[in-house]
Amino acid sequence: MVGIIFLINGPNLNLLGKRDPEKYGTATLEQITRQVAKKARKHGFVVKAFQSNHSGALIDFIQTLGLSEATVLMRGIVLNAGGLTHTDVSLRDAVDFASSKGVPTVEVHLSNIHKRETFRQVSLLTGVSIDQVCGLGARSYTEGLEKLITHLKEMRRKSKKK
Predict the structure, then answer these.
(1) Sign of torsion over alpha carbons 25, 53, 38, 72
(2) How are beta strands 105-109 and 74-80 bridged, if at all?
(3) Is the pLDDT of residue 156 over 90?
(4) Which residues, in sequence order, are CB contacts of 36 under 8 Å at separation 6+?
(5) Most exposed of 5, 51, 80, 89 (fewest Cβ within 10 Å)?
(6) HSE-up of 128 (CA within 13 Å, CB side)?
């Protein structure tokens, strides 16, 4: 194992496949998690999934990642914060903290938030995430995973040069 990918999902994402399938697709969160885990394994990563409808639970989980001593070579987060993306400064701060401790985040969204309601077009996470992938449906997750793995491998390569 090279590292761990934390697949973190926020409010209402437990309803994927049931809620607004024309907007979010028919894949369930369980199916998406399996796809991400399969792709991650090909790169030597394991996936640990976490979902909560509660901001505080997400913040606690992400803070824990920043506070824990790294026992694996590489760790990173693929995060779909759902509606909290646009409203939760405390969640943003937790992502920023984890990043400062070597646990970077890629922000993902099923729909293209830039073509939705005005209030959804602003992401508070963009400034603290290494990248954002949106509008690709369930594929946003695997594309986000690829970007994160590339970033983690580059971080590792640079640390070995020092």
Answers:
(1) positive
(2) parallel
(3) no
(4) 5, 7, 47, 78, 141, 142, 145
(5) 89
(6) 22
3-state secondary structure of 132: strand
Q: Can 24 be counted among the known catalytic residues? A: yes
The answer to whether 125 and 134 are in contact (CB under 8 A) is no
Catalytic residue among 43, 54, 86, 109: 109
How long, in residues, is the chain?
A: 162
- Tell me if residue 9 falls in helix, strand or coil: strand
Among residues 24, 54, 114, 151, which one is catalytic? 24
Mean residue pLDDT of the chain comes to 93
By the 8 A CB rule, do 104 and 74 touch? no
pLDDT tens figures, 33-43:
999 999 999 99
Own/partner long-range contacts of 113-116 (Cβ < 8 Å, ≥24 apart) = 113/85, 113/86
> Would you give the distance in Å from CA 137 to the centre of its chain?
14
50-92 tens-digit pLDDT: 999 999 999 999 999 988 876 556 899 999 999 999 999 999 9
Give yes or no: 109 in active site: yes
